[in-house]
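Page 42, continued from yesterday. The earlier attempt failed because a stray header line got pasted into the input along with the sequence. Redoing it now with the clean sequence only.
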Amino acid sequence: MITTTQMYWLVKLDDIRCVFGDTLWFPIAWIIVVAIVSFAAFLGTIDEMEDKRRKVHAILKKALWTCVPMLFLIVIIQVTVALVPSTRQMAAIVVLPKIVNNEKVQTMGNRLYDLALEWMEEMRPANRAERPAGEPTDKKGACK
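This time it went through. Structure tokens are written below.
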């Protein structure tokens, strides 16, 4: 039996993988670049005058306070988009478990399997009389 929760994760795992594997690298790379620039600016100003160091520190602090919330917002939006199913995905999530878990459909599969086995058994050369070559067939293609 398959549940709607299992179907949801089956449908959405590819989108979630895409967000964390393909598109999340940009915000992470941005955070790393800002951290490296901040660290380099801090190291570069150690030997300089205290006044310049304070100005650079203030500029970098403003940059971090504006960039970091935007990066978190980007991550939250990307994860939200990955978790919300589209209309077609939602239809599959709701409808497929009902079809698969239906008793009539499950028993129909067993009956179709048994019917196919019977047909294959009848089609074996040992179980049917061999038709002479050139014998005409009716309109459906079966022997007369």
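Notes: The mean pLDDT is 75.
Reminder to self: strip header lines before submitting.
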